Amino acid sequence: MTDTTLDNTVPAARTSPFPLKKAAALGALLLALLAAPIAIGDQFISHIFITIFIFAGLSTAWNIVGGYAGQLSLGHAIFYGIGAYAGVMLMNMGISPWLGMFAGAAVSVVVAVAISYPCFRLRGPFFSLATIAFLEVFRVLALHLREFTGGATGLMIPLKFGWEWMVFRDRTPALLIAFGLLVVALAVAWWIRSHRLGFYLVATRERQSAAQAAGVNTVKVRLIAVSASAALTAFIGTFHAMYLTFIEPAAMFSLTMSIQIAMFALIGGLGTVIGPLVGALFLVPLSELARGWLGAQALGLHGFVYGVVLVLVVLFMPNGLMGILSRYLGNATPQRGTQSASVAATPRAAERPPIGNDILIADHLDKHFAGLHVTNDVSFSLKEGEILGLIGPNGAGKTTVFNMLSGFLKPDSGSVKVRTEDGSWQAPLTPGDFAAIGVGRTFQIVQPFAAMTVEENIMVGAFHRYRDVNDAREAARETAFRMGLGPWLHAEARGLTIGGLKRLEVARVMAMKPRILLLDEVMAGINQTDVRRAIDLMLSIRDSGVSIIAIEHVMQAVMSLSDRVVVLNSGQIIAEGKPQNVVRDPHVIEAYLGKEFTHAQA
Amino acid sequence: MDTFLQVLASGLMLGALFAIVSIGLTLIFGIVKVVNFAHGEFLMIGMYLVYLITAKLGLHPLVTVVAVAPLLFLVGVATQRFIIQPLMSARDDHIQIFATVGLSTALINLALLIFGADIANTPPGGLRMPIQIGPVRVLLGQMIILLASAALVVGLRMFLQRTQTGRAIRAVAQNRAAAQLMGINVNRIYMLTFGIGAACVGFAAAMVAPLYPTSPTIGTYFVLTAFVVVVLGGLGSIGGAFAGAMIIGLIDSFAGFYIGSDLREVAVFGVFLLILILKPSGLFSERLNLSHVSP
């Protein structure tokens, strides 16, 4: 079972999180882990390995939420406890824990969704605090509902032995089941990490708004992750209850255990597939042995060592053991080189397609921020194949208009309508709707997914069109080369210069192949040569049939690119027309340079 | 009616206890923006110090504040300097949470190592004497906690509003980079704030120790409630923490009496979750800047 799941990895892709060699190494490691205790045949050794498998499994499941999605749950024992109680309670009613497992998982998924959905808007520590609070509530309720849970006295499982009941006199079958559960958890974690879902989760973790703009349904992907994680945790909880033969609220819904689960993942390597396994492999024997050797002599010594190790790991190896391993194995980050290489010269299409009919209409957009009237009755339209420049002095409301044109802000009144490919008109509401209908946007303040490589960043955009990782990767590479980002495909986005990040921003949205492109100051802060190349690039994008609205302060670009210009000042449109005419409009000059200047000129 | 008044009074006294423990936490949370899971353990250290000083030297517990608060100040400064500061620029705040969780685990077990699992009873020094106010009866020590926490709120507010250092602290809380550009030594301010936050706990310990038995895990009992109080009161709002603590104290007391003592925590955490989800800025937030909530 292991081999088939693991050998399916994509060998071609260099940055796939799980290339063939690594998969083979992991397979060998897992088999060795299973073979060792069976070969030794000692009860205590087997117990330690079962504990390793259980905690590695729990931690791997946690990592899907805490690592990939970046939602630092410290209440994961909720799902473990639900699995345990479901298993034991059903077994007392004569139902096999193999079925109880699924009952526990089903309840866990419902609970996980109900808990997480309202908590997703909480960031970092607040999400953690909320999960802790939920955990406490569950623990207290388990204590309180004595008739079901046995309260503080806990529950014993009836002594029925055999595979059917998941309870054995011998350790070996338990070892096999624990191992099987770990493999399932690893397989799910690996599958998620190497498919679209995993990219979406990491993108959401890194930059929620940029992920939304790339068409990611950020709530949905995180709910899927939480559900998968909760179900896996509950499976293991059921099994562990059978292994322990006795459960009680304090041990099942324990904060210490929740922290431990998270800690293994952190020490192993947050967000990596096998980090949690490595962490558990390293720490479980350490703590079991310490408990055995030190515990008797000095109460608390092993806990003290544990805590100190945790602090030291956080301080000196924040990427965990996996970080050290990969450095040791020479998976260093690819050389950066200079980043001044510019946008590749793009051959221009011989002829630009004619400007067509309206494709996007902003209809009487009104927006207030408290007392400030940010946009006041803004109406304009974008025609197919056109470049519309949106200019205006600082604070005119340009970016607010963009946020309304892409679903990030809802107008107080008025609406945005977009013509779909089949010619009908729709009024999308959320960023996801806008992305689905073919509206792509960039952000004025660049929003890279910092921990991802350039290629992966662009892939997040490409996934909008392709479900398959390889297709998305190919599309991303093509886009990267077109945007002059080819040499940095495998560099982490955080290492790019501002010019590189601006290009990455455009590349990501281009990979979505939008029909309408909203560019927010993509030329600000880049040098003259790059501006000229960016202008060429925008023209070639336009010639490929994309309609563009560009906010821009670089007048050179505005004048040479725009077919039409809309001028915004203090939330109102003060001029609209051909660029040459607009810049001579006295209202526009006044808005930019003040009344005195207009008088002086007159 | 008398029962009701007694429950009310107990709630207020409990609220005062939560307040005096939470004020330091809200300072650290609101200004250094670090979730200090080891806060409860600071209290535990303080209580053991009070215990040691009173038991060995025979001093009155309230007197120990002159030694315990400065010692805790140093503990706070050291924590900030050697654990939090190196992580200030860390990629995400997960890392800091784990660091303080690790510190908390280490401190609990260190106490276990030194003092054993048995509880240590600080000599009450007359603070457990009941006093009768009309129909209700409270302990002298509880009254002192109420007065002391009120004094702490007023004192800290004056410090933050009126002094140059206090202004610098508030400036750093609002915009770290801008404060740095104005010539404020941000790292020093963080150390100072963390130190003051910890010193507040030392101050609290001198009053809490005579009433509550000290044990290695006493901190975990308080820390979750303290977080509830801080979020309820609004991050970094000292007055808010005081009011939030009173509300939680009352909820705890009334839920314990009218619903069942084993469900008190459900009521407290239920309220916490509702606030977190429905009004994450807290009930009395002074600022609109909510870095912890997505738009």
Automatic annotation (TrEMBL), chain A:
Q: Where in the cell is it found?
A: Cell membrane
GO MF terms, alphabetically ordered:
ATP binding; ATP hydrolysis activity; L-isoleucine transmembrane transporter activity; L-phenylalanine transmembrane transporter activity; L-valine transmembrane transporter activity
**What InterPro entries does the record point to?**
AAA+_ATPase, ABC_AA/LPS_Transport, ABC_transp_permease, ABC_transporter-like_ATP-bd, BCA_ABC_TP_C, LivM-like, P-loop_NTPase
**GO BP annotations, alphabetical order:** D-alanine transmembrane transport; L-alanine transport; L-isoleucine import across plasma membrane; L-valine import across plasma membrane
Q: Which residues form the ABC transporter domain?
A: 360-595
The way this protein sits in the membrane is described as: Multi-pass membrane protein
- Chief location of this protein? membrane
Q: Per the UniProt record, which residue ranges are transmembrane?
A: 23-40, 46-65, 77-95, 101-119, 126-142, 174-192, 223-247, 259-284, 304-326
Task: Provide the leader sequence positions.
Answer: none
| Pfam families to which the protein is assigned, alphabetical | ABC_tran, BCA_ABC_TP_C, BPD_transp_2
- Cellular component GO terms, alphabetically? plasma membrane
Keywords of the record, alphabetical order, are:
ATP-binding, Cell membrane, Membrane, Nucleotide-binding, Transmembrane, Transmembrane helix, Transport
What's this protein's name? ATP-binding cassette domain-containing protein
Task: Give the organism, scientific name.
Answer: Rhizobium meliloti (Ensifer meliloti)
From TrEMBL, chain B:
UniProt keyword annotation of RNA-binding present = no
Q: How does it sit in the membrane?
A: Multi-pass membrane protein
What InterPro entries is this protein classified in?
ABC_transp_permease, BCAA_transport_permease
Q: Which domain of life is it from?
A: Bacteria
Question: Where is the protein found, in the record's own terms?
Answer: Cell membrane
Key words, A-Z: Amino-acid transport, Cell membrane, Membrane, Transmembrane, Transmembrane helix, Transport
A GO term from the CC aspect: plasma membrane
Q: Which residues cross the membrane?
A: 12-35, 42-59, 96-119, 139-160, 189-212, 218-235, 266-284
Q: Which Pfam families does UniProt cross-reference here?
A: BPD_transp_2 (PF02653)
GO biological process annotations for this chain's record? Answer: amino acid transport
Family of this protein: Belongs to the binding-protein-dependent transport system permease family. LivHM subfamily.
Q: Which PANTHER family match?
A: AMINO ACID ABC TRANSPORTER PERMEASE PROTEIN, BRANCHED-CHAIN AMINO ACID TRANSPORT SYSTEM PERMEASE PROTEIN LIVH
Q: Specify the protein name.
A: Branched-chain amino acid ABC transporter permease
Species annotation = Rhizobium meliloti (Ensifer meliloti)
